[in-house]
Amino acid sequence: MPHCHIASSNKHTTIEVVINREKMISSRWNRFFCGLVFLCFGFLGLITSPAEAAIKKYQFDVQVKNVSRLCHAKSIVTVNGRFPGPTIYVREGDRVVVNVTNHAQYNMSIHWHGLKQYRNGWADGPAYITQCPIQTGSSYTYDFNVTGQRGTLWWHAHILWLRATVYGAIVIMPKQGTPFPFPQPHREAEIILGEWWNVDVEEFVKKANNLGLAPNTSDAHTINGKPGPLFPCSEKHTFVMEVEQGKTYLLRIINAALNDELFFAIAGHNLTVVEVDAVYTKPFTTQAILIAPGQTTNVLVQAAQASGRYFMATRPFMDAPVPIDNKAATGIFQYRGIPNTVLPSLPQLPVSNDTSFALSYGKKLKSLNTPNFPANVPLKVDRKLFYTIGFGKESCPTCLNGTRFVASLNNISFEMPQVGLLQAHYFNLKGVFKTDFPDSPQTPFNYTGAPLTANLGTSTGTRLSKIAFNSTVELVLQDTNLLTVETHPFHLHGYNFFVVGTGIGNFDPAKDPAKYNLVDPVERNTVGVPTGGWTAIRFRADNPGVWFMHCHLELHTGWGLKTAFVVEDGPGSDQSVLPVPKDLPPC
């Protein structure tokens, strides 16, 4: 049972909601319970200010559990023995305190994907970027504020490939009394899309890396950890959502897959997109959505069809010559009172290489851009960056073919340090990283022309880009045909950014900026760079610290498709990195 601790002062009132880790209490029950407490104390005159700041405390026990899927049983790493892990329910303005205790055999770190963590990179979570990992038998408390954000985000392991099973949703409700800018739904549900391997993920990745090969594609995709009845031994491993005729539902959809962009649809039902990456959008209706790893999408769906059972389904999008797991995972959208014997109908998902759907879908995404939710797009740019995305091969005498794959930005493959980059920056440790990452490639070429397979001379290093505090940045991410073109979802930690432009082919700095959308571009934290194309983003560097930027395909991240920005402190006392937490894990 939750309990609410109320502390009153002249400045503010704090409610502390402590949530039992064994049975996560629903957000509505928390709100109801704490609302009653507020009401009682309010009548007693103990509350002197309408300002409320809740502290939400969670205990995350990282532990191994035996789980069975697709007729295979194996041990997986979980949080609190749950797969997917527990949902974090908060309200805009809350403080969140998550104590993570690591009982598993692997080092661990948790990233709170999409939370801006202003001045507080210590709570961001990527291993060896903002912290060293939590070792077996140790704990670390992630303590952060949820400021100026509301919507759906998520959390996941940020070390090795452990996020294959260590992930969960973050639901941020608007401030009390603030409605959604769309019709209030009857009910909400989290829909987390993932991947499943029958074998031990860490073992096969290690083996593939040692051989210089790409790891196997997954054996199934999942909806809330379940592949659905189209897979063997999966009748009981099917997510079912019961709905009432005529009611409207809000689905909070998260792509937690490691390596696949995914389509998602519900048979016979349109989806109205109202938010992506915890930023409201101009609503639009579509039969299917496209969602990249790391992204979230909120949709409204009306249960307005003939009462029955309808499959929700997800399947990958891939328009490059790259092998994928193309089987559809399914769940069931079931009208109340319909027996389970009724066979569900399948949705018409776009074909796996439907580039035109992907591009047209992306163009429909626009910021709401209202007085309450403005799109503050930087119109003047202080720093222009142009990063090429490429693959290469490097010598590896112990590998099967004598080489292994590497991936690079501006032909530099990122080398992970042995200490946290944020610590190195904060304490001015020498020799950990350099701030000489080039603003553009040293050798321009026809980026999306014929495939280039010659010796590409990719270098490796821990090279970062230093950004002046509060400067405005434009970054163009350009896919290249170094070995092959491919789509890449890029995630920037510590920031949202505006996607001001995208196109196929080579970016033209003379002509393409004239086509930018600087009025209502979509704002997000993870964006897809199209196959053989480019994407331009803008952001204001007002969050000091060291912030990771990487491809959110785990395969490519492991090959070195990543870098980081060092954003300098500002002049004000509240514009510098916060002091180091006392329990920050040692290196």
From TrEMBL:
It is found in: Secreted, Extracellular space, Apoplast. Its EC number is 1.10.3.2. The keyword Transmembrane helix applies. The lineage of its organism: Eukaryota, Viridiplantae, Streptophyta, Embryophyta, Tracheophyta. The keyword Nucleotide-binding does not apply. The chain crosses the membrane at residues 29-47. Keywords: Apoplast, Copper, Glycoprotein, Lignin degradation, Membrane, Metal-binding, Oxidoreductase, Repeat, Secreted, Transmembrane, Transmembrane helix. Binds 4 Cu cations per monomer. Lignin degradation and detoxification of lignin-derived products. One of its GO terms (biological process) is lignin catabolic process. SUPFAM superfamilies: Cupredoxins (SSF49503). This is Laccase. Its cofactor is Cu cation. GO terms for molecular function: copper ion binding; hydroquinone:oxygen oxidoreductase activity; oxidoreductase activity. Belongs to the multicopper oxidase family. Its main location: secreted. It catalyses: 4 hydroquinone + O2 = 4 benzosemiquinone + 2 H2O. Residues 62-176, 191-337, 437-569 form the Plastocyanin-like domain. NCBIfam families: laccase. CDD domains: CuRO_1_LCC_plant, CuRO_2_LCC_plant, CuRO_3_LCC_plant.
